[in-house]
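for the writeup, i need someone to sanity check this before i put it in the appendix. the sequnce is what the collaborator sent (i think, or maybe the updated version? ugh). structure was predicted straight from it, no edits. if anything looks off just tell me and ill rerun, i have time this weekend
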Amino acid sequence: MQYIGLQHQISRNNRNSFFLLITFPLLLLGMLYVFLFFADKQDVESTNQHFLTGVPFVIIVVCVWFLIAWAGHAAIIRMATGASPLLRTENKRVYNLVENLCIQQGMKIPSIYIIDDDSLNAFASGINEKTYAVTLSKGIIEKLNDEELEGVIAHELTHIRNRDTRLLIISIIFVGIFAFLAQMTLRSLQFGGRGKKGSGYIILIAIAVTAVCYFISLFLRFGISRSREYLSDAGSA
């Protein structure tokens, strides 16, 4: 059996992840086309015309959404998780473990955050050296010994070294777009389903299309995440 080194696996995984990321915008445009196809009563010529007209608007909206989420992702994550900065004076043990691992690998020490929760949880986030962060729950800090906690921290630092955090943030933003569209179609059915004749049919088609695309986007996101987890395990070792 031919030996495949870790760097080769990382390169191959980056190529595969790139193709998976391309699938997200293609899936979004495909969703638009299918919806217009049924909304135009399966008239291909009319669908093509409306699709070409709608593509620029979709691209602009997605770009604005993406830029806002990209710029504010760090604050959004902290608000969603309730994470707060972990000061060196509060827990020298955690700081020493993170610092020693970073010095060994010659990487800049990321920010450290803590979640006031008893669960065993840890994750890395950020898109560059200014925003890279490792977040640990209070439970994982208290329940693991130094060797175990060092392994967890090394795993999260490997995510940062491999730029997994940037990739996952992009995939999460796209999944968020599909989730938002699915929620909007459900609300349209609830509040707008009693409008003019035929509107209920269009809304049901929109719900079906967005639901399918949302679940596909979740599978794509999990596919990217799972392959990266295996490499982070190897990198932490």
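The chain has a mean pLDDT of 80. The chain has seven helices and four strands.
thx in advance!!
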